[in-house]
CheY-P phosphatase CheX
Amino acid sequence: MQVEYINPFIRSMTKTFDTMLGCEIKRGSLILASDFKANYDICGVIGLSGRAQGVVVVNLSRDVAMQAAATMLMMDPSEVTDLNEDVIDAVGEIANMVAGAAKAELDEFELSISLPNVVVGAPPDIRFPSEVHAIAIPFECPWGAMSIKVGFTPCSVPA
Amino acid sequence: MQVEYINPFIRSMTKTFDTMLGCEIKRGSLILASDFKANYDICGVIGLSGRAQGVVVVNLSRDVAMQAAATMLMMDPSEVTDLNEDVIDAVGEIANMVAGAAKAELDEFELSISLPNVVVGAPPDIRFPSEVHAIAIPFECPWGAMSIKVGFTPCSVPA
């Protein structure tokens, strides 16, 4: 994928954490997703389609997911004690916001966004078809570590 | 979600395995995805969007994934020895075929399909936002066990 398509996703991730969660995040360097080996505890995943096909994986460490859920639910972080349904919903909504803000910047592709899904595991390892060449970006914030992985392929005919 | 939306996905799963892989599959009963606890080794996941938002998770046991990959690659199954890049690509392509055939039956929703992603884990556990009420269907075939989970929500305004 062309690196230029990644910038709207970096901006949307930064904006989602800053505006919606009041949490300043700092990005690391771009790396091919196939070379990025850090997997955190929980992933919000969402598809994009239209004049391009895409997928965004927002991968959060447990602490980031629980603090983000507490902030969205206006709860004390000590009240969010495990990766329960509230945290699953919060992580799905973060993926939705990240994809939604990136979609708005990529309007030439007339994108629409799918339902999110949320992957928990030990930790989950999300791969892409080999021809996609997805890109990963690590982020750090006061709550902990996270990353996004983005695959994005323009289509000559809408998918 | 309404149960009627699940039928195109059941037919597309059956058709993909029968036509593309020469493997006859037998479906079990519908169950709410949140109550379906069997997780197999590898998942192909793909989003749908348009006048509905959806997500399809095709969850295959290791044996099914490896036999399917061998069939698609016209290799002897003994040559496919682990969940390598060829198997990842094959599982992504199965998700793509299942979503593509269901999309064709659900043309009133003007759906487009995202890039697939493939989740491996120990095994991966894929959840949906709590308001989606996704449905799971177990399947059996001579190669082993598998399932699909589908979330599908019509939208008043295209997503």
Q: What stands out?
A: The interface with chain B takes residues 45-50, 53-55, 57, 85, 88-89, 92-93, 112-130, 132, 151-153, 158-159 of chain A (CB under 8 Å). Helices of chain A lie at 7-20, 62-72, 85-105. The mean pLDDT of chain A is 95.
